Amino acid sequence: xxxxxxxxxxxxxxxxxxxxxxxxxxxxxxxxxxxxxxxxxxxxxxxxxxxxxxxxxxxxxxxxxxxxxxxxxxxxxxxxxxxxxxxxxxxxxxxxxxxxxxxxxxxxxxxxxxxxxxxxxxxxxxxxxxxxxxxxxxxxxxxxxxxxxxxxxxxxxxxxxxxxxxxxxxxxxxxxxxxxxxxxxxxxxxxxxxxxxxxxxxxxxxxxxxxxxxxxxxxxxxxxxxxxxxxxxxxxxxxxxxxxxxxxxxxxxxxxxxxxxxxxxxxxxxxxxxxxx
Length: 277
Description:
Layout: H1 2-23, H2 27-51, H3 57-87, H4 93-113, H5 115-122, H6 129-132, H7 160-191, H8 205-217, H9 226-237, H10 244-253, H11 259-276
Helix pairs in contact: 1-2, 1-3, 1-10, 2-3, 3-7, 4-7, 8-9, 8-10
């Protein structure tokens, strides 16, 4: 029951987070809305968990290893992004890159400080799950999260928060690396000459995602994966498309799924007609 409920709840959270990307251009306001949404959905999960308590060790491992950290990691990720954005220096791109690289060093230190647990997670091991993800277990030799003493004991284990931190740190690392790549690419484009400047995407992100899915469906780039095409387009047009999978689901559900493609076709035909006159 918890698994099905959490799947629907997480899908709703992802939908809201993706809508913020499409609706809000101001980064700080977008991240603030994202944090508030993550808190809201995590509280809903907590309420449902208390009403449908996972009682057996197997149920607790499923919940505290595979369900709760997904929600908590999104909260940690967006709160960390908000803190980074608020403290980001105003200045030349080299200064901003140095700042972001320093944040990557902080993440590297976190991974190094929790290497044993990180390796356990990365290798998808299970032999310590009953100590890490079952309530009431506290082994001082397994580096438990001391905050568990102050957390709600019915909604916490010694390592579910740390697992959420690991997931969030991986998300944050990828995000920062993409940011640095976009900045360095802008610098390279600036050096390439005036004719190569200002080629940022000016249409909506939904429109670009329509094109990307069309390119992928028609093998425009060969057999490249959808994700690799998205990353290439993000770098090429200096745009972040967020959770493009959820945007695609939203596009398919609207009245005109191919609104931009239809607009392009109409514009092209109009131009062709003018040429033939």
